[in-house]
Specification:
This protein has 185 residues and is mainly beta. The chain has a single domain, classed as Beta Barrel (Lipocalin). Helix content is 15%, strand content 61%. It contains 2 helices and 10 strands, in the order H-H-E-E-E-E-E-E-E-E-E-E. Strands 1-2-3-4-5-6-7-8-9-10 form a 10-stranded antiparallel β-barrel.
């Protein structure tokens, strides 16, 4: 009996530590409020931008490399600052893809985005030099589209360079990561 109680106590303690660590590891966008240069999405994504990226699986192996050419512009539509980002992807295996985002600044530092392969609406918040996007993407795998959740973080390094790290999950299980470096023309 004493051994069972010890085992149950140990399991509860281990579970508590895991839950505590998980709750502590969630970064908040407000933590970047004092970081500079301040990211203005409409200024950075206006005109031509190039990106260079990799997709790594959950073990850290690079499974795909790609480049992206982005042509973007912003205008006020019905009083809302609205951007169009036309992304043309070229993958290392020779395949191509296009994604056209429509992004609306719904409040200061708060964004909504849509694209043909995004399920519902992407939600974004910015603070200081950072932007955090959360959305579900239809990802083509073996001739089928699967829904994958993205937790996408962008960090403005200077007026020309922005870094992007996006973690992908399905049913809360970590699948891998996309890492990008954006450069303005």
């Amino acid at each position: 009996m004493r051994r069972q109680i010890h085992s149950i106590t140990f399991k509860c303690l281990a579970l508590g530590i895991v839950l505590l660590l998980a709750s502590c590891s969630s970064t908040k966008i407000e933590e970047y409020a004092n970081e500079t240069p301040v990211l203005n999405l409409a200024e950075y994504f206006n005109g031509k931008t190039h990106a260079y990226g990799i997709f790594t699986d959950r073990g850290g192996k690079v499974v795909k490399r790609f480049t992206v050419e982005i042509v973007s512009n912003w205008k006020t539509i019905n009083g809302v600052n609205t951007g169009t980002l036309d992304e043309s992807f070229q993958y290392s295996d020779g395949t191509t893809q296009q994604r056209i985002w429509t992004i609306k600044e719904i409040a200061p530092h708060q964004y909504e985005g849509t694209a043909a392969d995004v399920v519902g609406v992407a939600i974004g918040k910015s603070s200081g030099n950072a932007l955090n996007w959360k959305y579900t993407l239809l990802l083509p795998v073996d001739g089928k589209n699967i829904e994958v959740q993205f937790n996408d973080w962008m960090y403005l390094v200077n007026s020309q360079v922005m870094l992007n790290r996006a973690q992908m999950t399905k049913f809360g299980i970590y699948l891998g990561e996309v890492t990008l470096s954006f450069t303005k023309d």
